[in-house]
UniProtKB/TrEMBL annotation:
Pfam families: FAA_hydrolase (PF01557). Keywords: Isomerase, Metal-binding. The keyword Metal-binding applies. Residues 23-223 form the Fumarylacetoacetase-like C-terminal domain. This is 5-carboxymethyl-2-hydroxymuconate isomerase. PANTHER family: ACYLPYRUVASE, FLUTATHIONE S-TRANSFERASE. InterPro entries: Fumarylacetoacetase-like_C, Fumarylacetoacetase_C_sf. GO terms for molecular function: acetylpyruvate hydrolase activity; isomerase activity; metal ion binding. The keyword Iron does not apply.
């Protein structure tokens, strides 16, 4: 039996590839998004779900998935770890970051909603094929550690999401530290760091563009 290939993401300006181990995703990490999803934006303990490494997709296309009539976009930045460990202090967390990339957490919202009502895991709404379009990795050596800057998403030129990285309830170092209390983080781990408000449905033929100040843009076509 052939072994599945290792998922590896391109690093901008280099021939190097970043092999992916795990993908953690934080939920409701911008206050306005928490409100639009019907939740209190107060700073409660963070919670995470997972996508699969092969859900990350660099093709620039998002195949509309089956068994849904309501697929939503969620613009995010992805955090790529070069090292890990357990119980990482917040003030040392960024030492473990290799770089960042623009990404989307595509969601079968109708299926996720059913799971929420039943108290079941979200994976059927979150962890499907090509559900995490992602751009090239920008190394922290080049761009530093972005903790502020406008993040937007347009669909066919219409502005849908508009926020700022400084609006994260749980900042990137805190996310790393918190995860490391429950998991042993390692090189190749990816964290999708949350989305601002304005999530909405897409249809086949739509063109989504994610932009983050200082990080460029990512264009993804719904096919």
């Amino acid at each position: 039996m052939d072994c599945p290939p290792v998922v590896a993401l391109p690093v901008q300006g280099s021939d190097a590839l970043f092999p992916v181990r795990r993908v953690y995703c934080i939920g409701r990490n911008y206050a306005a998004h928490a409100i639009e999803m019907g939740h209190d934006p107060d700073r409660e303990d963070p919670f995470f779900f997972q996508k699969n490494p092969d859900n990350l997709d660099t093709s620039g296309e998002f195949p509309y998935p089956p068994k849904t009539q309501d697929v939503h976009h969620e613009a995010e930045i992805a955090v790529m770890l070069k090292s890990g460990g357990r119980n990482i202090p917040v003030d040392q967390a960024l030492e473990h970051v290799f770089g960042y990339a623009l990404a989307l957490d595509m969601t079968r919202r109708d299926l996720q909603g059913i799971q929420k009502k039943l108290g079941r895991p979200w994976e059927i709404g979150k962890a499907f094929e090509a559900s995490a379009p992602v751009g090239p990795i920008l190394s922290a050596e080049e761009i530093g550690h972005p903790d502020q800057g406008r993040i937007t998403l347009t669909v066919n030129g219409e502005l849908r999401q508009d926020g700022n990285l400084n609006q994260m309830i749980w900042k990137v170092p805190e996310q790393i530290a918190y995860l490391s209390e429950y998991y042993e983080l390692a090189p190749g781990d990816v964290i999708l760091s949350g989305t601002p408000s304005g999530v909405a449905a897409v249809e086949k033929g739509d063109e989504m563009v994610v932009e983050v100040e200082g990080m460029g843009s990512l264009t993804v076509k719904v096919v």
